[in-house]
Design brief:
The protein is of the alpha/beta class. Helices cover about 35% and strands about 20% of the residues. It contains twelve helices and 15 strands. The chain has a seven-stranded parallel sheet, with helices on both faces. Helix 9 packs parallel to helix 10 and helix 10 crosses helix 11. The mean pLDDT is about 90.
Length: about 350
């Protein structure tokens, strides 16, 4: 049986890096159908070659990659993977419609970079592009921001969230309007080291709650969101009448470090029925077993629905194994959390 290859266009102003990317993408199921030297060149080649996926540099002459995405995607829904060393540029690219990003490699990272890029291309080829504005409506956002929770009854409550591809934007939709009276939130988003600190800082500027990157021993408290650090597993620990987090290096679990399964399993064991779990868009199955563990321990669990996911992988596996109590569109998840906390 002949399987259709994924057609990729490489866009980068560096001739050397175009060659590197083309070589790293060599695989039986992937075909590099062309290269482009900048956004203007890429626009013509996208329309003539019709690639399934493009890899896109950000810093390019004539037009940078982010501006290019903003102009291109309303016209042509092509899956884009941004290649950048800058976390800020990565998040701006996701906001502009890129499916995912990959950290530009150093010489020592070249071997793992190739397999990482290939897997991202495979994921991007099946991802939804141009889902449109999934933000909570302003009326609903105001309602969320002004929700008055019963603080006493929510002492020791915990919300755990896990996501991968498409998750940086999806997590923001869920948490940006939650009031400061919301119980502590712990998050694992698959992301490289260095990027998680910038992501937490970005959320901190947007959210009503305080947001920080995890440090070992952080106390989980009302009004605080803790984002797992890249290359460090995040675990919840009960400490007397409160919770702390453990943030430590370790082997990959379910293919990732940090792993959503690791976080969810720890929340299941330490918080039980006092917890709520949310699994969002992402490729693969990380978090599905952990979410099931949470549900079996009495936690309320939510899975993002297929229509609103960039990649309906992790939430699908969780739903199919019976780990999800309630499936919902992305923009409804914050409201569901508030409703369960009242």
């Amino acid at each position: 049986m002949i399987t259709k290859k994924i057609r990729v266009l490489v866009v980068d102003d560096s001739a050397m890096f175009r060659t590197v990317l083309s070589n790293k993408l060599a695989a039986p199921d992937i075909e590099v159908i062309g290269t482009a030297v900048d956004a203007i060149d890429a626009k013509d080649k996208i329309f003539s070659l019709r690639p399934d996926v493009i890899t896109l540099d950000v810093e390019m002459p004539r037009m940078n990659g982010i501006e290019f995405l903003k102009k291109l995607l309303p016209i042509h829904k092509v899956a884009a993977i941004v290649v950048t060393a800058s976390p800020v540029q990565a998040f701006e690219a996701i906001a502009a419609g890129a499916v995912d990003y990959v950290k530009k490699p150093t010489a020592s990272e070249m071997v793992v970079f190739g397999s990482k890029l290939q897997n991202l291309v495979r994921t991007a080829a099946s991802a939804k592009v141009g889902l449109g504005n999934q933000r909570v409506s302003e009326t609903a956002a105001q309602s969320l921001r002004h929700s008055m929770l019963n603080i006493a009854s929510n002492a020791n409550k915990i919300i755990a969230i896990g996501a991968s591809t498409g998750g940086t934007d999806a997590i923001q939709v869920v948490v940006e309007n939650l009031p400061k009276t919301t119980p502590g939130i712990v998050i694992v988003q698959h992301m490289p080291a260095g990027f998680t600190k910038m992501y937490a800082d970005r959320l901190n500027r947007i959210c009503q709650m305080e947001v920080k990157e995890a440090q070992d021993g952080d106390i989980v408290r009302q009004g605080l969101i803790i984002v797992g650090a890249g290359e460090y597993h995040l675990r919840l620990k009960k400490s007397g009448g409160s919770y702390t987090v453990e943030s430590r290096r370790g082997e990959k679990v379910s293919g990732h470090c940090p792993s959503v399964d690791v976080l969810f399993d720890s929340v299941a064991e330490e918080a039980g029925a006092k917890a709520m779990g949310v699994i969002l868009t992402g490729m693969g199955a990380d978090g599905a077993k952990g979410l099931l563990n949470m549900k079996q321990k009495g936690a309320f669990t939510i899975g993002q629905d297929e229509r609103s996911c960039v990649v309906y992988g992790m939430p699908m596996v969780a739903y199919n194994m019976g780990a999800v109590v309630k499936q919902a569109p992305l923009q409804n998840i914050a409201g569901l959390l508030i409703e369960k906390l009242r």
